[in-house]
Design goal:
alpha/beta
């Protein structure tokens, strides 16, 4: 069975592009055929995807195209892939009209689960309230689990894992704070020279993220 999921976040700047690019690079390096997609009419992140996957990244956008066309694109470009990874945009439910056109709408439309990437800096058990709201807001959005980004210590990790246990939510891992792996905004993303070498990022993802469990999604 083909693995397919959407990487989203509560807000922009949470690390979803970093995680998406790293996972795509890691899985491609391991010999999987990874087909990348991007929610919305974004032309920058798609270039990062293509650089690590060796395949064109396809935009999925329900503002300028129909739901039927989005499904057709997903099926066509993912037909010969082992894994389809969709990177979301903005916050999970942020659309042009409430959640219309949002990453959540794309996930519902394609019937694929969401991997939620959360910036966990300076947050402890209050994370339970945030996650509870996201996973219960729409019953028609499925969650594969959560990845905590910018985690500070082992004690911090234990607190965050306790949150997931209490919410019956799968914790897919905790990525430590590291300025070397953060995706910059230099030249509005038009300079790709700093994004071609993902070695450090893929090593950290392989060590800290339960990426193998995503192969069954």
């Amino acid at each position: 069975m083909k693995s397919q999921f959407l990487i989203a976040a509560p807000t922009s700047g949470s690390g979803k592009t970093t995680l998406a690019r790293g996972l795509m690079a890691l899985l491609t390096n391991k010999g999987y055929r990874v087909q990348p997609f991007k929610c919305g009419p974004d032309y920058i992140d798609t270039k990062f995807h293509e650089a690590v996957c060796g395949r064109p990244s396809i935009n999925l956008d329900t503002f300028m195209t129909t739901p039927e066309h989005v499904r057709e694109l997903f099926a066509q470009y993912g037909a010969d892939a082992d894994i389809c990874i969709v990177e979301g945009m903005m916050g999970l439910f942020d659309g042009y009209d409430r959640d219309r056109g949002s990453s959540a709408e794309i996930a519902r439309l394609l019937d694929i689960p969401v991997v939620l990437v959360v910036d966990a800096r300076s947050s402890g058990y209050s994370m339970a309230a945030l996650l509870s709201g996201f996973i219960r807001f729409r019953e028609d959005v499925r969650f594969a689990g959560v990845i905590f980004n910018k985690v500070g210590s082992e004690k911090h990790i234990q607190m965050l894992r306790q949150v997931c246990e209490d919410l019956n939510l799968t914790c897919l891992g905790c990525l430590p704070r590291d300025s070397h792996i953060e995706q910059g905004t230099r030249y509005l993303g038009l300079d790709f020279s700093e994004a071609t070498d993902c070695t450090t990022l893929t090593q950290m993802i392989e060590k800290h993220i339960a990426w193998k469990s995503l192969l069954t999604r």
